[in-house]
Design a protein that fits this description.
The chain has helices at 47-55, 86-93, 95-110, 118-132, 137-147, 164-177, 194-205, 218-224, 245-283, 295-326, 389-396, 431-439, 441-446, 469-481, 499-510, 523-527; strands at residues 9-18, 21-31, 36-40, 62-66, 71-74, 182-186, 211-214, 227-232, 237-242, 355-362, 366-373, 378-382, 404-409, 415-418, 487-491, 515-519, 532-535. By secondary structure, it is an alpha/beta fold. The protein has three domains: 9-234, 3-Layer(aba) Sandwich (Rossmann fold); 255-326; 355-535, Rossmann fold (3-Layer(aba) Sandwich), CATH 3.40.50. The strands form four sheets. A six-stranded mixed β-sheet has the order 5-6-7-3-8-9, sandwiched between helices. A five-stranded parallel β-sheet has the order 14-15-16-12-17, with helices on both faces. Strands 2-1-4 form a three-stranded antiparallel β-sheet, with helices on one face. Strand 1 (9-18) and strand 2 (21-31) form a beta hairpin. Helix 5 runs antiparallel to helix 6 (164-177). It is flat.
Length: 536
């Protein structure tokens, strides 16, 4: 094979600041060819920022990036022009492949001109053509679209005529079709069902170049990653863990335990040193009894003891100063969901469902016979993309009126929906202000936003528009949790949420005082679900 050796993806000392806030601080990493590194961390720690910097879409304030010649970047939110067709999107992905093919043809013609550099040029062009698989572009396009579950959609359609999830799949297919030397993926499984996620995994496993992907998908991290990079700003910055998500959980817990023990041990030693310097050493006095006329002995022994005390104080002082400067910081309390606040009011004890839908039909989106929700229901709605999971939740929430069918809601019923894609009307408002306007001052004061454990203290008064997608979704979740509804509908609740919060939310839903209906493709969540399951 005439391919040149693939280059690793490297970053050295990357720092990024937005205004007064430092998002990334001195981050370094190396992703060698064939490695698949999962990028994880709390919402807002800079995962998407790091991917943009590595892709060259954003310049760091400091640091150096070394990347292969052709890097493909999957944005978390699809960037498209509504009037573009799907065919144009796919052909645009092949622009570099077509250019490589033209260069190979030109290099081949140059061989006949006896140019000394022609052989090297041809060898490089042939290597690039083999890596980009230029001769199988059309067949690969069809295989990618079929594998991601959108092969049946006519390519003549405009991007505005397909769903957001389908657009994401086409964008992913287009990226893979271009065969870049390295892949950077931001939440690649957000809109993928089991079959499509398994197909993507097979593509990444076979990828020769370096792969770095940010993901909340615990099952995908477990199966697809060869290692994890945790952007943890609390102590060690970027930390590499070998293996998948399960190995990470164990190592992360052990690392936290080591940190807490080291901090406790150092604080105990500091307290002992301060005592030695301030109390013990200075209180030591030579108490040997001598005769009044034995001035020589008194002077000799007294001076010796003084020197011993002085040496002890100097040693303790030196160690105290050294440890004070080098001590590890106190482990911060992790941002964690504090659970369901009080104030939930039931609707009485009358029999029957809180909410019931019968003979629903939304053309092209959903057909369903009967769906009932009781006061303590725990329902997981599953099914492939396009089966109508999101549409069902929108109908239950009253956001969509079905063409056929009825939806009956108990009088006084409060239904809230956590949507997949959160949009705030005024991006200049702060989370604190949005929270107060939505709940009213009295409720916002009795259930403070900071007390829910969903928004960090430093982010309460920042404009919501500068927060990450995950942080905005945390705010949307807080707005619902602050006044728990009788029926809580969640559409792909783990999308965009950090791994830790996703787990905490799942545990909290088990003890939710009202009814819970979850639509999700998350394999980790589904495998651990203990309630009712409705497959569309």
């Amino acid at each position: 094979m005439h391919t040149l050796a693939l280059s690793p993806l490297r970053a050295d000392g990357i720092s990024v600041r937005y205004g007064e806030r430092r998002v990334l601080s001195d981050v370094s990493l190396t992703v060698p060819p064939g490695a698949r590194i999962g990028l994880i961390g709390e919402n807002g720690v800079g995962k998407s920022t790091l991917l943009r910097v590595l892709a060259g879409a954003e310049a760091p304030d400091s640091g150096v990036v070394s990347r292969p010649r052709r890097v493909g970047f999957l944005w978390q939110e699809v960037r498209f022009r509504p009037d573009d067709t799907l065919a144009a999107l796919m052909e645009d992905a092949l622009a570099e492949v077509r250019a490589i093919e033209r260069e190979l043809e030109a290099a081949s013609r140059a061989l006949a001109d006896d140019d000394p550099a022609a052989a090297r040029r041809y060898d490089e062009a042939l290597g690039a053509a083999e890596r980009a698989e230029v001769w199988s572009a059309e067949s690969r396009r069809d295989a990618l679209l079929d594998g991601l579950g959108v092969g049946a959609i006519p390519l003549a359609r405009r991007l505005s005529e397909v769903s957001g999830g389908q657009r994401s799949r086409f964008a992913l297919a287009a990226l893979l079709l271009g065969r870049p030397d390295a892949l950077l993926l931001d939440e690649p499984t957000n809109h993928l069902d089991d079959a499509a996620a398994a197909f993507l995994e097979s593509q990444l496993v076979a990828w020769n170049g370096p792969v770095l992907f940010a993901s909340h998908d615990r099952a995908f991290l477990d199966s697809a990653a060869t290692g994890l990079l945790d952007l943890d700003p609390t102590r060690t910055g970027a930390t590499v863990f070998g293996g998948g998500y399960s190995a990470y959980l164990a190592e992360k817990a052990a690392e936290r335990a080591r940190w807490e023990k080291q901090y406790a041990d150092e604080q105990a030693e500091l307290a002992a040193l301060r005592h030695a310097v301030d109390v013990t050493a200075r209180s030591i006095a030579w108490s040997g009894k001598v005769r009044d006329n034995d001035k020589f002995v008194k002077s000799y022994k007294g001076n010796t003891l003084d020197r011993q005390i002085s040496r002890r104080i100097r040693n303790a002082d030196g160690r105290l100063d050294e440890l004070t400067k080098a001590q590890v910081p106190k482990p911060p309390k992790p941002l964690g969901f504090t659970g369901i606040p009080g104030g939930f009011q039931r609707l009485g004890e009358e029999a029957g469902s809180l909410l019931q839908a019968d003979d629903l039909h939304v053309p092209g989106r959903l057909t369903l016979g009967r769906f009932a929700v009781g006061a303590d229901s725990r329902v997981l709605v599953t099914g492939p993309n396009g089966a109508g999971k999101s549409t069902l939740l929108l109908v239950l929430a009253g956001r969509i009126v079905p063409l056929v069918g009825t939806v009956h809601r108990r009088r006084g019923l409060r239904v809230e929906l956590l949507e997949q894609d959160v949009r705030f009307a005024d991006l200049t408002q702060t989370p604190r202000r949005i929270y107060e306007l939505a709940l009213g001052e009295r409720r916002a004061e009795s259930v403070p936003l900071s007390g829910l454990g969903l928004i960090a203290q430093r982010d309460l008064d920042r404009e919501v528009g500068v927060l990450s997608v995950g942080q905005q979704r945390r705010l949307a979740l807080a707005l619902i949790m602050a006044r728990p509804p009788h029926v809580f509908l969640l559409d792909e609740p783990t999308n965009h949420l950090s791994l830790g919060l996703a787990t905490e939310l799942e545990e909290a839903l088990g003890g939710y005082p009202g009814a819970v209906v979850v639509a999700s493709h998350d394999r980790w969540l589904r495998e651990r679900w203990s309630g009712e399951v409705v497959a569309l």
